[in-house]
Amino acid sequence: MRSAARQKSALAVTATALLALAAPLLTTTEAAAASVSTWDKVAQCEASGNWSINTGNGYYGGLQISMSTWRAFGGTAYASRPDLATKQQQILTGEKILAGQGEGAWPSCGPAAHLGSDHTDPYPAGPTYPNPSSLASGTLVKSPNGPAVKVMVSGSGVPVAASDVTPDKYDLSKIVLIEDAAFRALPSVPPSGTVIHDQAGGAARYVVVDDAALPISAADWTADGYDQRADMGVPTAWLQAAVQRTVGNGRVVMDQSGSDPARYVMLNGSALHISAAEWTANGYNTRTLMGVPGDWLHAAAARQIGNGTIVKAADADPTVYVMAGGVAVPLTWADYTGLGYDKRTLEQAPGTYLKAAAAKAAPVDGTMLLSPESNVVWQVVGGRKKAMTADQFGPGKLSFDDVVGVPTAFTAKLPTVTA
Question: How buried is residue 17: exposed, middle or buried, by Cβ count under 10 Å (0-12/13-18/19+)?
Fold first, then answer.
């Protein structure tokens, strides 16, 4: 917009814009739209394709628009000057100028780029997709940008595997397209507390806690009030995986029925009892308390913490333990680093639980122990230790991965089986 003819056009632009606003029914024979590629040609001609150019000549940006023109056609809604606006914003303003003045607003570059004969909307409106939050549970959804399919369950998008389609009777002809960003942002796990079942059928019912599916016994179904909640079908493959997962470490739980006042904290699938003193002293009262099926909770409370778990009390006690067959074995700093436990995650447990576990006489039968003083692997039998042989390990047999490294002092105090 820098020629003599352009200057005359710039002087008249305000009147043109006002006329367009006052008489919207008036039409022009000039083009009112052009493709982005055509606008790129104009910008290449006007400004060597530099959409941020400001040389001080009174014209700005890729389309070299004067300030009077920029203001008259609403460009200041985007930026104070054309060169400070985005390429798209400059093109959208250029569209208004083109509609009002035609390609002559760019006397040389407009005709050279065939600006007046393009007639293509540079930024056509895309299809309108529904908000996934408005879709009912059971609706199949996908992004227009990929093949993955999810099923809506209480506001979440649970992945549907190819193996689920037939047994779960999912009708792929009824898939609803949603925005790609919205599709990817969908939580893949239903909210905690959602009651679910296998979409393919069956009597088993589960409740979601974190990303795990906890079985609900027949007794708990009514006693815990789960029969009063919506019962949602979920894809078979997802459910099978969720059943194998455990509730997240640190999650505080209680019996959903409310008949048991005890509170527990989860650690690697075990529910550890929290004493009344520790409930507030260790800050468990500040965490979200989740109700879980009573029968599941009783089983989790009876389950010992996995062998090799490294743990310390949630209070100020600095002692670190390794779990071995239900016993919390205290570790010195030399043990902690020498046995490689400093490379593992250090978990927390209620102090009263750890003290009771540390006071146990011996690990449960079958626990395999190894101390740094020798290469002998010991197996606990009736509170005593028995040396194992190499032929007990291997494919289809015991695994060295299940052996727990403990301080020499711990194995030394266990009597040895000699016969």
Answer: buried
